[in-house]
Amino acid sequence: DIYDYQARRGQRFNIKIKAGYFNSDVDVEFDEGNFRDDLQSVSFDKQSNFRFGIELEHMFPFTNKWSFILEPSYQKFEDTQTVNRVNVDPSDFTQRVSIDYSFLEFPLGVRHHMYFGRSKMFLNATINFILALDDSIAYSGEFDDINLYRDLEISDTVSIGLGFGYSFN
Which residue in 71, 56, 53 sits closest to 12, CA to CA? Predict the structure, then answer.
């Protein structure tokens, strides 16, 4: 713990600075059928990146086993793929697709602690709010002298998360 605060009436707040390392990939997919959309689908390789954030935890006053958590963090994904488009009438071509995506993630949820002597294990259930900060998906490549690409935006989203952890001593 970077900071541990004991308030009145048995309430307890924990604040931790967090850093992590994660692997992720991105798929841009469109429904088949529209020629322009077919040419924008691409899968980016797994990338290893760092995340930085803070964990805010409020222990419920009626028990030391349950808490409310908020873990905002900053994350970024960057990659460039070269895609060979084949079987395209009248001729095959190659395009480069680049993604630059940074976002804030706000997991909000509950945590259950299980104590084993001086160690503890915990389980989390969260709702994750993801807010895009800077996003761009750029296409380069021409087909028959006509640029077929349009700007794409990555929208904010919500997901559900489950997690666990272990603390020794």
Answer: 56
CA angle 63, 69, 75 (to 5 degrees): 160
Omega of the bond leading into 107 within 30 degrees of 0 (cis): no
Quote the DSSP letter at residue 36: H
| Residue 35 β-bridge partners | none
**Which segments of 86-156 are extended strands (E)?**
93-116, 119-140
Amino acid at 69: I
Question: What six digits make up the tokens of 94?
Answer: 């190659």
Token pair 């895009």 is found at 132
Exposed (0-12), middle (13-18) or buried (19+): which is 163, by Cβ within 10 Å? Answer: middle
SS3 38: helix
Beta bridge partners of 13: 5, 58
Q: pLDDT for 120-168, tens place per residue?
A: 999 999 999 999 998 888 777 765 455 556 666 778 899 999 999 998 8
Q: Is residue 24 within 8 Å of 43, Cβ to Cβ?
A: no
**pLDDT per residue over 46-102, tens digit each?**
888 889 999 999 998 888 899 999 999 999 999 888 887 766 666 777 788 888 889
- b/e for 58-70, b at 16 or more Cβ within 10 A? ebeeeeeeebebe
